[in-house]
Amino acid sequence: MNFSRSKLLTLLCLLVFGSGNVLRAVADSAIDEIIVSADFRDATLLDSSASITVVDAEAISQRQARHLEQLLNLAPNVNFSSGASRGRFIQIRGIGERSQFIEPLNPSVGILVDGIDFTGIAGAATTMDIEQVEILRGPQGTLYGANALAGLISLQSVQPGRQTEGNLSASVGDYNTQTLSGSLGGPVSDDLGLRVAVQQHSSDGFVDNDFLNRDDTNNIDELSLRSILAWQASDNTRIKLTVFHVNADNGYDAFSLDNSRRTLSDNPGHDRHEATAAAVQASWEGNQNFALASTFSFADNNLQYGFDEDWTYADICVDFVCIYDGYASVDNYIRDRDNSSLDIRLISREGAQIFAGTTDWVLGLYWRDQNETLLRQYSFASGDFTSDFDTSNRAIYGQLDTQLSEALTLTTGLRIENRDANYSDSQLVDHGVDENLYGGRIALSYQTTANARIYGLISRGYKAGGVNSDPGLEAADREFDTERMWNVETGIKGLWLDGAVQAQVSAFYQLRDDIQIKQSLVQPIEQTNATSFTDYFGNAAKGKNYGLEVEFNWLASETVALFGSLGLLQTEFDTPLSETLNSRDQAHAPSYQFALGSTVQLTNRLALSLDIEGKNKFFLSPRHSAQTRAYELLNANLTYDTGDWELSIWGRNLTDREIIVRGFGSFGNDPRKGYMTEPYYQFGAPRMIGLSGKYDF
To answer: CB 3.0 to 4.6 Å from 98: which of 81, 476, 484, 599, for a disulfide?
Structure first.
């Protein structure tokens, strides 16, 4: 089934407008208010002058999602790249990284888990006991700075409540997929609350290794633990301690010489991530003019990523006719990354507005230090490669929210940031950069009715420059410059039909300057006819990303609820980095992406959820012409709920569509074909069916 854009838009129109008689039957149904917590102040989704998608716990449960990657298709113009056991490289509106090997990385999309910084390593973003996921699209120059050029994703877990409550759940599915999880929270005393959660998720994966006769070389094995201690230290002081641990011991055996889910690797790879992190969040309201809020976080990350570079075994040319002799190679990357951050802000209180009582204000200081060491063990290297990458960020920021009239609000924000980065490695590359960066936004919001508003904003984001680590590059390719972006956006959001419909529509136009683009230098491997790649970043002078985003939730009746999202995206290079860049779209930027779904309450206890998600084909890299295929995935969940007990039968990708999540366009790796260059792909999950049970107490 292939969707043209016209068919997609027709389907959306039929869904939104073709059931008006059902909508008119709505009586008392209303959509719950959604609170967004990722900004400076907690605010309702409809009061925020920005493009934000919120995925709540119910949506996570309906999709049986165990990781952030399984939720991203719900948000318009949000994409991801794998090349690992998880889709841990994220793009928003076509902007973001697609992989990491030897080079140090400056991310474009910020990732926070309970205020803890996991930017650039989203493999730790499991959905254990997550209450909601907030996806902020567009540069977050005031809020988060250098690592949020494209946007920010914040995962918020369930907090300790005033009553003791918890749950136990278990799930089984195809490919020996198993999940066990539990959580318990409530008051320890009048002033102290505690919540703990644990989840073990495992799967053999959906790849068969024919050489080793194994079906688990691309497995998932993830343990997540979280503890939250909330203390009301005094009438004016609240302190919260969050401790988080993830141990992912996943396999990585995804690429096949035959472009299938059957591999021949004799040294299958791995994708491991062990993280221990903590955050202390404190608030003090002892002053009548302002509140003091602070967050200190620390994360210790140990990552190991390795793969069988030849994708086969040593004696393949004994079993098959080869044009050239085969080769054997293993590539392994061991990273240790520690990062600490401190964010302190003063937030004005009610009655303490400035400028004749019209303007709320925020003033903040930010500090972040990160150290990342790398050990690379590569078969074709004369010795191990090591590197050390230290970055330090210091920022001051502020925001003013001015009530120009009862309905009109002006928001102005500015962030000034200093970034000091130093890189050195075992091949005598030594590079340092100390630069001052700035970003911010100006937004105007007008409340048209009690439940609707329109807004317009101009925001500026930035992404720091850096160094390419391989000394084999030309001198002109060793460094790359800071990327800057202006984002112009307008939108409307609100509640209609007595609160039965919640919708938001936004249009954006982004001007990018000195675009950082990942390229690869193709080099022959000695004594073979195969080739290897040296990745490096370069700058294209200018580019544009523009499009439209639509989201809605609709309580069509007392028994039927619908949701949908649509992202339309166009991308351009104004000045090329290579011969191809000025003649096609940017990489990982599908021209459309959509999700449509419905939940029907069949009886008092039985509910059926159906949804379809899809996106257009897109280029996998600016270096080559390999593309994905357009696809649509059908998912379903049938749930029987007694109140305390819940039983679900679920399925994902029910039509068993073949999805490409990573690929190489001009890579020769098959000795049977004389290492002829051809495209190779990593495929996403096929059809999966499962059964889940949950007990709430």
So the answer is: 81
**Token digits of residue 465:** 């420059």
Radius of gyration for the alpha carbons in the chain, expressed in angstroms and rounded:
25
Amino acid in position 272: R
What pLDDT is attached to residue 39? 82
Q: Tell whether the model's pLDDT for residue 596 goes beyond 60.
A: yes
Tell me if 691 sits within 8 A of 172, measured CB to CB: yes
∠ at Cα 69 (553, 185), nearest 5°?
75
Is the pLDDT score of 475 beyond 80? Answer: no
Q: Are 87 and 79 in contact (CB under 8 A)?
A: no
Give the dihedral of Cα atoms 126, 130, 132, 138; nearest 10 deg. Answer: -30
Q: What is the pLDDT of residue 439?
A: 95
Tell me phi and psi for residue 287, to 5 degrees: -110, 140
The tens digit of pLDDT for each residue in 86-137 reads 988 999 999 999 888 888 888 999 999 999 999 989 989 999 999 999 999 9
CA torsion through residues 467, 69, 275, 135, sign: positive
**Contact call for residues 412 and 360 (beta carbons, < 8 A):** no
Q: How far apart are CA 494 and CA 454, in angstroms?
A: 9
User: Cα–Cα distances in Å, from 394 out to 83, 457, 636?
Assistant: 33, 26, 47
SS3 (DSSP) at 469: coil
Look up residue 246 and give its two tokens: 């993830």
CB 196 within 8 A of CB 181: no
Query: Cα dihedral angle (532, 538, 540, 542), rounded to 10 degrees?
Result: 140
Pairing of the two strands 208-209 and 192-203: unpaired
Architecture per CATH, domain 5-696, reads as Beta Barrel (2.40)
Sketch the domain layout of the chain as residue ranges. Answer: 5-696
Distance, C-alpha 44 to centroid of its chain:
22
pLDDT, tens only, 4-53: 444 444 444 434 433 333 333 333 456 777 888 878 888 888 888 899 99
Task: Identify the CA nearest to 331 among candidates 88, 134, 102.
Answer: 102
| pLDDT for residue 10 | 42
Cα 564 to Cα 73, 84, 552, 580, 626: the distances in Å are 11, 29, 5, 35, 30
Coil/strand/helix, residue 13: helix
